[in-house]
Amino acid sequence: MKKDLIKSMVAFSLLGPMLAGCQEKVDTPVKNTSSESKESTVHSHNHNHIHSHDDEKNQKIYSGLFQEDEVEDRELSDWEGDWQSVYPFLLDGSLDKVLQKKFETNKDKTLQEYKEYYKVGYETDIVRIVINDNTITFYKNGERKTGEYKYHGYEILTYESGNKGVRYLFDLVGEVNGLPKHVQFSDHIIYPTKSEHYHIYFGDEEHDTLLNELENWPTYYPSNLSGNEIAEEMNAH
After folding, report:
1. What is the pTM of this model?
2. How many angstroms from the chain centroid is the CA of residue 79?
3. Orientation angle between helical segments 111-122 and 96-106, nearest 10 degrees
C-alpha cells in the first residue's frame, strides 16, 4: 500500500532525523491519493533482524530512504511493552538539551520555535500505553481501558523530499466504549523487530483519515526511562 503526501513546504520535510531521529510530519498535505486499503494477513516471523542506527542500511531506512519492496508486515508484539509519553518531559524541561542540540545543528528555527513545534507534535492526554499480546491498554486521567486489536496492514507515506515513512495499521476487535477504533504505529522500522520508541495515531476515523494527521504525533519511550535518559537516547540519534 502506498499513500502519496505532497508537502507544501520543504524546510521541514523528511530530510533526516529530528528529535530522536524522528520527523513524521511537517505540513498538511495538499494532495492525498491512496491505493485501496487491504486487509493484510499477518505472516509468521521471527525477530532475527538487528535494528542498529550504526548500520548504514538501517540508518538509511531509519531516515526514510528505502525501497517499497523492502517493507514487511509486522505483528502488534513488535510494540509490546510498557510505554510512557514524552510530552511531560518536554514540558518540564527534561528535553531542553535535545532542543538545544537541534537548534545548534540546524538554526532554521529559534530555540523557542522548536519547543512550540514539538509541543504540538508531542501533545497527548494518554500518559501511558501498555501493549501485551494482542491487546493495547490506554491510560488517561487516572483510568485505563484495554482492547484487542488486529492487524490491518501498512501504508507507505511518500513525501515531496523523496523520503518515505511507514505506518502499521490496527483495528479494534468489537466495540469498547472509550477506546479508539483504529490505531497506527510509526517507528522508522519497516520489518519485524522490537520497537525502541514510536509515534502513534489513533481515533474512530477511518485509516485514510488518520493518515492525513501530520501535525500531532504523540511519541512513546519505555516507561522505565527517566526524562534525562530519554533525552540521552534522542541525542544519540
Report:
1. 0.81
2. 11
3. 120
Q: What are the grid coordinates assigned to 26, written together? A: 511537517
Grid cell of 186 as nine digits? 510509526
pLDDT tens across the length of the chain (237 residues): 544 443 322 223 333 334 444 544 433 232 233 333 334 333 333 334 444 444 788 888 888 889 999 999 999 999 999 999 999 999 999 999 999 999 999 878 899 999 999 999 999 999 999 999 999 999 999 999 999 999 999 999 988 788 999 999 999 999 999 999 999 999 999 999 999 999 999 999 999 999 999 999 999 999 999 999 999 999 987
Number of domains in the chain: 1
- What is the CATH classification number for the domain harbouring 33? 2.40.128.20
The residue range of the domain holding 25 is 2-236
CA 128 centroid distance within chain: 15
Cell of 164: 518515505
Cα-Cα-Cα-Cα dihedral of 27, 31, 36, 42, to 10°?
-20
